[in-house]
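[job 4471] stage=fold_predict status=RUNNING
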Amino acid sequence: MNAALRQTLSPARKPCGSLRVQIAGETCVLRCSGALWLPAYRALIVADLHLEKGSAFAARGQMLPPYDSRATLDRLEAEIADLDPAMVVLLGDSFHDAKAIGRMAGDDLDRLHRLSSGRDWLWLEGNHDREALANQASLSSSLPGRIVGDLPLGGLRLTHEPEALTAADDRHGEVAGHLHPAARVVGYGRGVRRPCFVTDGSRIILPAFGAFTGGLSVRDPAIADLFTTPPLAAVLGRDKVHAIAWNRLP
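[job 4471] inference complete, writing structure tokens
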């Protein structure tokens, strides 16, 4: 991989000024990478890796550099090295499409096996990879770990897609991905759009972890309408997670 491109996709690690919050009474650490760390369970949770998105676009004639899977796995490996989790939970859309697993390089698949060794490794199904994981379950496995549905963990419920609010249920304890939240922040006269966590202390939506994933504004009704009270945006910086109140977002 070109060194400059790799630096862009997988920047040098710096100590992370993580943000510690309470979700449904559980201590959650929001990491600069976009990963969620649950220290009580030694559980590392990441959402929306979209592995092999580059190769999917290339097959349709849009020539993205084919480095996204490796860069995403670099990030994941760095988090595992820092935290040594007992459990890794991938919240769905880990693969970009139904054929993504078959397009993965052998050394990337080998790395998944190496990263999963000695820990519980759980794949949740997302809308992008449901068919890929279903096919995988019927074959001799090339993926490590287990494929599961929604996962209860203490006071939390881990799922791919956040559920709409109802009068009877505020989705207390829900941990979800799917929507790729992002926020625009302004400083020193300049604006920048950054991935972010979104939480009101009752539920949380994780940013996308993948190298080639985009973002949806937290002001979009698809995200804003999921919260009964104005949520907090925890915006990812290079070496700090910045807590920004809803009324301070542009």
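[job 4471] summary: Residues 1-12 have pLDDT under 50 and may be disordered.
[job 4471] exit 0
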